[in-house]
Specification:
The structure holds two protein chains of two kinds. By secondary structure, chain A is an all-alpha fold. Chain A has one domain (about 30-555): Cytochrome c oxidase-like, subunit I domain (Cytochrome C Oxidase, Chain A, Up-down Bundle). Chain A has helices spanning about 20-25, 30-60, 70-105, 115-135, 165-195, 210-240, 255-285, 295-310, 325-350, 360-385, 385-390, 395-425, 430-455, 475-505, 540-545. Chain B is an all-alpha fold. Chain B is elongated, with a radius of gyration of 23 Å. Chain B starts with about 20 loop residues before the first helix and ends with a helix. Classes of the chains: A mainly alpha, B mainly alpha. At the A-B interface, helix 5, helix 6, helix 7 and helix 15 of A face helix 1 and helix 5 of B.
Chain lengths: ~550, ~200
């Protein structure tokens, strides 16, 4: 199928000086390159955030450990949380959206290529600002000081009196700047999907990945902006002497919590919905069946987006809201389980009776299904406010949300890496290293986060830098730390796989998985112009129609 | 590995294929995002009404800016007129009503400046005086910031217009800008209601 690529004389250039190459990457407005830049920057910060997690785990490995000081420990969990959410998860998902959405809808590029580049560099600048705080947090006189008040910076901890120096300012500016980047990308994704679809790509024929990224971008518009607004208020408090969150002048610390979680909870869905999108592309291809219940999947996604906007205060059951509020947020939180359950049934329905191929992307996807289910179940447990009163602020909560973020989001992302890496680079990732990566990460993940539920139930609080021996937490914490190191080893295998396969991997060809969406119709990696001729589609699986002209999908839709 | 050997040639193009304009969709998205930001500031304003531990209170110091409100709201009419006349290529009418829009917007900003000057120098209310000051200057200031941004963009178009570069082919872009201006006016309706009607 390489005949689809046009050879333009003078574009197949041999070796360029590396400065030219770098200059091209820095000034690029191509959605594929920006997508890869997003992904690479996310991998960089994944490594940094991972090291921070390991420092946390080494410190907690045994009681009365003094690997790091309490102050450093606080900085580590603050930086770990902020980094992983804002500078790993968001950029990597935006990266995949950037790369895949135009290719899947048969477009030349995103709707606003320069806005796209601007958004990426804003979010990267945000990450640099956050990490510059290590140097500049207390001015430039040596003792670096990163933010240490938790990834939510609860009032009044973020106020001048409790966060002297500039560490909180860097945190605020980092989130504000990267938030503007996210809004720019969200606008771009929506405009691309609504305005640049190729002929025949009706809204009900779009691949589910495109649908779910549309919903995700819509959520970014209304969920990231409250965070930006709250950060502006915090800046006004810190620099202009405002009183938004200053309790001594009548301000409210609880209002900050509301504003933060109005962002914070939808954020979880902003991260997980693109992962649902990966699942909805990978599972059908490796089950050799079309997705089960396409319209219901779309409806469930939209439903999750709506309901998730009204669940935020389940993060605040312990601050003493009245019983009506507690009941309302318990109810809405449990309601989210219904559309999510529908999705899980649909994925299982897709696999049911299919000829399942256990390639690495599928392994990660199947693990995702089970782990995300368990994460959802502990979520429903926590949604019951009396149960939450008992376990809030304990390691049970930490285990729960890491089950969502690692067991759900990260597993889905690894699946996506193995699935689309051939498209992005033209080389297959090694299946052998992939299996090592999967099983090591799977074992490490379960060792860490299954076990972590137990010290939570036994009463181990979050965010403590050490603990007394003899409370029954010692062995458990030791096992958790071992699991963390096995996960780190798995990540190293993964990174090695990315690098080695880039040079030595088997040639992928256009369509290594025999898949059905438009991105597989162009060469790997796709040419800068994406499609030599604008494709026209007449069903949800355009490449199926192409490969099976005797029995096209369009006959049944 | 791929089992396909056919050259990809997709079925014949669909007969009719209409998609919305990307500029309008993007502006609509921006407006949704901005609305969420304003909502948070409005909620903070309402939540903190009457919670200031020291004076002055809104009732003591605020005066309803009726004239300047009329200015801003009527600028929505003039920009609409401008956009419509550009669509029909009435360039002089476009420039006239466009300049009128800028003048009305500028007048509104002048009104805000005058009010702030009075509050700061005559009444001693600053952003750090009390909760009312904090929320009032933030909310009204956020709106004034959006008016300023809008005026800068309107002025750019005016400069191009006087250079004779804004014709019918630009009417789509001008329409996108006028969406933004309508949004800024609509936000003022909310801010006015919250600050000068409910808030007193």
């Amino acid at each position: 199928m390489s005949s689809n690529a046009i050879t333009i004389p003078g574009t197949q250039i041999e070796a360029r000086p590396w400065v030219d190459e770098l200059h091209q990457w820095v000034t690029t407005v191509d959605h594929k390159r920006l997508g890869i830049l997003y992904i690479l920057s996310a991998l960089l910060f994944l490594a940094i955030g991972g090291v921070e997690a390991l420092i946390i785990r080494i410190q907690l490995m045994r009681p009365h450990n003094d690997f790091v000081s309490p102050e450093v420990f606080n900085r580590m969990f603050t930086m770990h949380g902020t980094t992983m959410i804002f500078f790993v998860a968001m950029p990597v998902l935006f990266g995949f959206a950037n790369y895949l959405v135009p290719l899947m809808i048969g477009a030349r590029d995103m709707a606003f290529p320069r806005l796209n580049a601007f958004s990426f560099w804003l979010s990267f600048l945000g990450a640099l600002l956050l990490y510059f705080s290590f140097l500049g947090g207390s001015g430039l006189y040596g003792a670096g000081n990163a933010p240490d008040v938790g990834w939510w910076s609860y009032a009044p901890l973020g106020a001048r009196a409790f966060s002297p120096g500039h560490s909180s300012d860097y945190w605020t500016l980092a989130l504000l700047v990267s938030g503007f980047g996210s809004i720019g990308t969200a606008i771009n994704i929506i405009a691309t999907i609504l305005c640049l679809r190729c002929p025949g790509m009706k809204i009900n024929r779009m691949p589910l990945l495109v649908w779910m990224n549309l919903v995700m971008a819509g959520m970014v518009l209304i969920a990231i902006t409250p965070l930006s607004a709250a950060q502006i208020m915090l800046l006004i408090d810190r620099y202009l002497g405002g009183h938004f969150f200053d309790t001594q002048a009548g301000g409210s610390a609880v209002l900050w919590m509301h504003f933060f979680w109005i962002f914070g909870h939808p954020e979880v869905y902003i991260l997980i919905i693109p992962c649902f999108a990966f699942m909805s592309e990978i599972i059908p291809v490796f089950s050799r069946k079309p997705i089960f219940g396409y319209p219901v999947m779309v409806a469930a996604t939209v439903c999750i987006a709506f309901v998730s906007m009204s669940v935020w205060a389940h993060h605040m059951f312990t601050i003493g809201m009245n019983s009506y509020a507690n009941s309302f947020f318990t109810l809405t939180t449990m309601v989210v389980g219904i559309p999510t359950g529908i999705k899980i049934f649909n994925w299982i329905g897709t696999m049911w009776g299919g000829r399942i191929q256990f390639k690495t992307p599928m392994l990660f996807s199947i693990a995702f299904l089970f782990q995300f289910l368990i994460a959802g179940l502990t979520g429903i447990m926590m949604a019951a406010s009396p149960f939450d009163w008992q376990l809030s602020l304990s390691y049970f909560v930490v285990a729960h949300f890491h089950y969502v973020i690692v067991g759900g989001i990260l597993f889905a992302l690894f699946g996506a890496f193995y699935y689309w890496y051939p498209k992005m680079t033209g080389r297959m990732l090694s299946e052998r290293l992939g299996k090592w990566h999967f099983w090591l990460f799977f074992i490490g993940f379960h060792l860490t986060f299954d076990v972590m539920h137990i010290p939570g139930i036994l009463g181990m609080p979050r965010r403590i830098y050490t603990y007394e021996p003899g409370r029954g937490w010692d062995t458990l914490n030791f096992i958790i730390t071992i699991g963390a190191f096995i996960q780190a080893l798995a990540i190293l295998v993964f990174l090695a796989n990315l690098v080695i396969s880039y040079f030595r991997g088997a040639r992928a060809g256009n369509d290594p998985w025999d898949a059905w969406t438009l991105e597989w119709s162009v060469s790997s990696p796709p040419p800068a112009y994406n499609f030599a001729t604008v494709p026209t589609v007449s069903s949800r699986r355009p490449l199926w129609d192409l490969k099976h002209p005797e029995d096209p999908d369009s006959r049944y839709e | 590995m791929s089992t396909v050997t056919t050259t990809p040639s997709f079925p014949n193009p669909a007969t009719e294929w209409h998609l919305p304009s990307r500029g309008k969709v993007a502006m609509a998205c921006l407006i949704i995002a901005e609305s969420a930001i304003f909502t948070i500031f409005v909620v903070a304003y309402l939540f903190y009404l009457g919670k200031s531990v020291t004076g002055p209170t809104p009732r003591e110091v605020l005066e309803t800016p009726i004239f300047y409100t009329i200015c801003l709201l009527s600028s929505s009419l003039t920009i609409h007129l401008a956009a419509k006349s550009l669509e029909r290529d009435y360039r002089r009418l476009f420039l006239l009503s466009w300049m009128l829009t800028i003048a009305l917007g500028g007048l509104f900003l002048f009104g805000t400046a005058q009010e702030w000057h009075r509050l700061i120098y005559a009444r001693g209310l600053t952003i750090s005086t009390n909760l009312f000051g904090t929320t009032y200057y933030s909310l009204v200031g956020l709106h004034a910031f959006h008016v300023t941004a809008g005026l800068i963009m309107l002025s750019l178009v005016a400069i191009f217009g006087f250079a004779g570069r804004v014709g019918m082919d630009q009417s789509g872009r001008v329409a996108v800008l006028s969406m933004y201006w309508h949004f800024v006016d609509a936000v003022w309706v909310v801010v006015f209601t919250v600050v000068y009607v409910l808030g007193r």
